[in-house]
Amino acid sequence: MFDKLFNPKGVAIIGASQKTLSIGNVITKNLIKYEYKGGIYPINPKADEICGLKAYPSILDVPGSVDVAHMSIPAKFAPMAMDECGKKGVQFVIINSAGFKEVGPEGAALEKKTVEVAKNYGIRVFGPNCQGIINTDPEVKAYCDFTFTFPEPGYISIVAQSGGVGAVFMQNIHDLGVGMRFYASNGNACDISIPEILRYYGDDEKTRVIILYVEGFNNPKEFMDAAREVAAKKPILAMRAGRTKEGAKAAASHTGGMVGVGLSTELIFKKTGILTFQDQEEMCQSAMAFAEQPVPKGKRVGLITDTGGPAIIATDALVEAGVEIPPLSDKAVKILEEKLYPEASAHNPIDVLATGNAGHYRAALDVLMDEEHIDAVYINFVTPPFVDCESVAKEMAAVSKKRKKPIVCNYMTDKPQWTGTTAILKDGNIPLYDYAEMAAKVMAALTNYNELRSRELGEPKTFPDVDKAKAEKILQNGKDAGKKMLSAAQVYEILGCYGIPAADWRTAGDAAAAAEAAEETGFPVVLKADSEKIVHKSDEGGVALNLADAASVKAAAEEMEKKFGKEGLQFFIQKFMPGGGKETIIGAKAEPGLGHTLMFGLGGVYVELLKDVSFALTPVTPFESEEMISSIKTHKLLEGFRGDKGVDRKKLAEIIQRVSQLVTDLPGIEEMDLNPIIAYEDGAFAVDARIMI
Amino acid sequence: MFDKLFNPKGVAIIGASQKTLSIGNVITKNLIKYEYKGGIYPINPKADEICGLKAYPSILDVPGSVDVAHMSIPAKFAPMAMDECGKKGVQFVIINSAGFKEVGPEGAALEKKTVEVAKNYGIRVFGPNCQGIINTDPEVKAYCDFTFTFPEPGYISIVAQSGGVGAVFMQNIHDLGVGMRFYASNGNACDISIPEILRYYGDDEKTRVIILYVEGFNNPKEFMDAAREVAAKKPILAMRAGRTKEGAKAAASHTGGMVGVGLSTELIFKKTGILTFQDQEEMCQSAMAFAEQPVPKGKRVGLITDTGGPAIIATDALVEAGVEIPPLSDKAVKILEEKLYPEASAHNPIDVLATGNAGHYRAALDVLMDEEHIDAVYINFVTPPFVDCESVAKEMAAVSKKRKKPIVCNYMTDKPQWTGTTAILKDGNIPLYDYAEMAAKVMAALTNYNELRSRELGEPKTFPDVDKAKAEKILQNGKDAGKKMLSAAQVYEILGCYGIPAADWRTAGDAAAAAEAAEETGFPVVLKADSEKIVHKSDEGGVALNLADAASVKAAAEEMEKKFGKEGLQFFIQKFMPGGGKETIIGAKAEPGLGHTLMFGLGGVYVELLKDVSFALTPVTPFESEEMISSIKTHKLLEGFRGDKGVDRKKLAEIIQRVSQLVTDLPGIEEMDLNPIIAYEDGAFAVDARIMI
Q: In this complex, do A168 and B23 lie within 8 Å of one another by their Cβ atoms?
């Protein structure tokens, strides 16, 4: 698909310049410096020579074939230059110049026009307002980019919307002494998209792990399809930007709004099997481990250390990162007691002591590789000047190369002095970390990825007992009436259509009818004034709780009639639910191009003060509905706590799925809140609900 | 005090060896390699020459004066060698060898004996089982240590109990290209202690910031006194080990036990003004900023960036680290709009664009330095190959050197290429970070330190209305009776002595008396069987709640008499407190050598499930008691939430202080739980309490 983009035979730089501090000059120099194997053709009508290469007045004058052309010229010349590229038979054009969509409507029009010209010739456009691509393959060495890092060949491929962030990843992976395979940062993404690049990386055999950075999606659906497909083949590590607590904070007033800025991005990652990071360093350091080591089958880690303090720090960090440190088998302990120093620790963490030698390390490694209940190995290796560290490193490398279980190493040394030892460990593909904490986080990333990969999301369940047509009609009625917020009766009717249990309810046109309706639902009841004029019902006296008999209902209704006037006033009567249940909340919020985000949480303090909620993207599968419930911190309250009875979790999970089906069937719903749903030991009932369209 | 330890005129190595992989050999080589300015005297009866230096059979044969002698010999020879050191007039002996206290009683005896010999001669002993010291002063260059890092001179001094961790700090600070002043790792600390070393660093003018690592305290009081004194002079950054969630977890059953492993260390740090870290890298990176930049006066940060994505990441990271990013003044925006590119952002974060030049950066820096409501400056600097980065760096360095407000910089570059730019920034004392997140954490460390330093803890209040003598007598009675757990009556009497409000209570010897007592407290009441034989009162039927009249009290008491037998059975009758209050918990736990840890939290789910509690060390000042209340996540519940009434916070703070005075006066108390204390709008009452002695 993008073979000629990443493996071009010839590259032209339209706008190449002799000016050192110009993008066209930098790209030309980069191609030369990185020793690109194809033809480099600077295009500049006013120069004969640029960076020691012959320059051509037009791309049409280039003698050789050109697969990729850079454009580093004022935006207004882009369509014309594209036309020339077409005539030359160029396959891919990387527009580095800015001045397009990002500067406003005029630029957007220019961008559109440029793409149209390209389409006529079958040219694919990369950018504009972007860096470009890099292919480290020694046979190609294509540095079609104005960045400054010159990476070694390797197995990590990077795709980043923001060039600044992409450059940080590339540079830091390079600083780690790890190689890279492909780099791509496509800025405005007017044509070639990140999902397409992802797919290309997915098909590339030499790409073992993908690093992804996005700030938003033009087409979330396209992204999800590609991500799911590629994530099934190899690990994708990703970060999202724009994560701030402000999102959750501002939404304290209503639950739908709790879906924070950028949260849906994280939910997309989770749903498609992408491992999400919140820290660039952690992601780069983890990429190194993913590129070099196998993925563990579980999260039980064995430690080897040659120094006390760092082992304590490592234990803290591993436990806090969610990794388990199980005790060793008796057999393992016995072997270690025989083979290590008498003062060494033969338990997990295994302390071979500062004076531990190669044989000791090998014994510890062999034991951990053989222990069935150990999934991965963490090593603390400080290089004592009084130990033959190269021999130790050789044993580690030998075990690592068997790729039986992943190894990460907190390597505490002065690298410029311990070059031999470092080289042996690197050659053994052991990822090396300066700090115990980072090594622990990387270990956790490996185990988390294993869990993510092993999740069986399953398919969403379709409940057959729903009346979609009726619900659609009610929604349409609301829309036709120009409503933003459906009336209580409409909301509960829709819930009824989807089998979402609610406390029994009636509507009534006047006080007398309200009292009658209450007789039908049974007492006690809640009475609400149902009129669009009344915005804050409770504050304005439009709600009467816990009415015990018909007389009280009638009196309360008459009071409301007096207050709000009879015109347009309807009453909503609902059975008042008994105490002893637990308040829960389910919310939904439309995500443009995506479906809806669903939210689950416990009501009251838990959601409002502690923000203890979980989210998922529709359509929600049974697995995901259960996961939503389990992943709130206070979920134990639902299982019964301190002698309390538990609640009907199964029913809650079913309601989440029914809500998922509801909003998927009715995409016109902007927001929906079931707040609260009171959950009992044997059922759950919505007792207040809102739908915004 | 330790001048001759850190600035020795001559160093002898007892146990110097020709064997390359031996500690005595490594120390000798280190002194030579680091170009120590004094005399180096290898001591070895069997060699004439070691590492090219003349070796002496005994320290007594050394011609020059020896201030510091290393011992790297089997432990059993230490007393004899110490005697020779005394005769030679050595001032400090660093015992590198292991085989002392850490291996058991025999080693401990040897350690004691060695110190005794040293004391006779007025020798101070460093170690044993330790690394040693380093002084980077170009006039001294004392490398009395077997570590492997060769640091440049600088302003950071390190003191670490664990040599392994100390070496990590030293190496990583060196890797950051930052200098060090002193290093000390004293292992078993048989004589020279960490508090003494801290004090020495505190008095050293060239030490600007201290890095500290401890795993425990021989004498917490001595440490606290020294730490308070030194922290008042310069920043101390510290880490503690053995932090795990297991502590909090295991303590779910009773509140006193919630004080986690190592928690008291963190409380000591906080109380004495030491900035605590949980991550080695964060601490090392922060030390660089503390060594090079001033401390900000507040936490309002202005950002400058030349690239979009990293600015989003920086904003997220700063906000999440608790830093504020306020808008700029109109005046500032106007200046920036005039001086920057038209497409640049003149707001906070200020985006000078990738093409931003030196003048643009300078304008942005000047504006932020002039803004009164900006306390510190954060820069994102990616080095575009098409910009004159050295000129940009020169402006940054010039502004930094004025030391008006601290600057930290996320420096995104390939350092081996941008050597000129890097050198200019380094020379300008600008701390450089590879990642936005780390730069943000360091910025937060600077602002947190400012807050820590500005806290006015005040003095603990002594309540005059207490009856210490009576409380002591009750405790003594309990002790004399061989009790572990005081009886309810004893507990409430002690509370009474310290003015800690409790629900009205009585004791009674039989059922009839219990009913009478209940008439006195008023109904409803709680009735408890008060007998040491009954361990789990509630489970065994020894508690009757909410008894409404005398008859019910009598019946319940008779039931208990039947169940437990009359012998030794007492009744405890207490007024049952009305609903509407909030359950809170105050706990105390003795910390050997320290006083007590106090705990505060909300009762029930909040403490048991969410572990939402705060801690402080006694004696607790009014400021600290308030801080304990404010620092739980759910403290808003106490202030009134969702229409709820608030509770009497002042009273709760007073009770915390009274408990502090109580356990300080009565150090024999092992654990004390007031669980719950029910807090109302106008008061708070303990309704269940336990004291363990």
A: no
CA–CA dist A278, A288 (Å, integer)? 17
Mean pLDDT of the A137-151 span:
97
* Per-residue pLDDT band at A123 (split at 50, 70, 90): very high
| B36 pLDDT tier (thresholds 50, 70, 90) | very high
Domain A1-127 has CATH 3.40.50.720: yes
Among A308, A316, A412, beta carbon nearest to B244: A316
Measured between CB atoms, which of A172, A313, A413 is closest to B280? Answer: A313
Superfamily of domain B504-576: ATP-grasp fold, A domain (3.30.1490.20)
What is the rounded average pLDDT of the residues B191-198?
96
Q: Of A280, A384, A436, which is closest to B435 when you measure between CB atoms?
A: A280
Q: Which residues of A fall within a CB distance of 8 Å from B238?
A: none
* pLDDT, mean over chain A: 91
Asked if A383 and B148 come within 8 Å (Cβ–Cβ), the reply is: yes
**What are the extents of the domains in chain A?**
1-127, 147-292, 294-454, 456-501+579-693, 504-576
Fold of A456-501+579-693: D-amino Acid Aminotransferase; Chain A, domain 1 (3.30.470)
Q: Report the C-alpha gap between B639 and B635 in whole angstroms.
A: 7
From residue A385, give the alpha-carbon distance in Å to each of B26, B27, B32, B176: 7, 10, 15, 22
Taking an 8 Å cut-off on Cβ atoms, the answer to whether B605 and A634 are in contact is: yes
CATH class entry, domain B1-130: alpha beta
DSSP A241-273: S---THHHHHGGG-GGGGS-TTHHHHHHHHHHT
CB-CB under 8 Å, A167 with B281: no
Is the Cβ–Cβ distance between B270 and B296 less than 8 Å?
no
The pLDDT of residue B308 is 80
Q: Between A and B, how many CB-CB pairs are < 8 A?
A: 200
Are residues A315 and B244, on separate chains, in Cβ contact within 8 Å? yes
Nearest-CA residue of chain A relative to B539? Answer: A643
Position A249 pLDDT exceeds 60: no
Question: Global pTM?
Answer: 0.90
Per-residue tokens: A654: 């079913």
* Interchain pair B148, A413: CB under 8 A: yes
Residue B616 has pLDDT above 60, yes or no: yes
Segment holding A595, helix H or strand E: strand A595-602
Class of domain B459-502+579-693: alpha beta
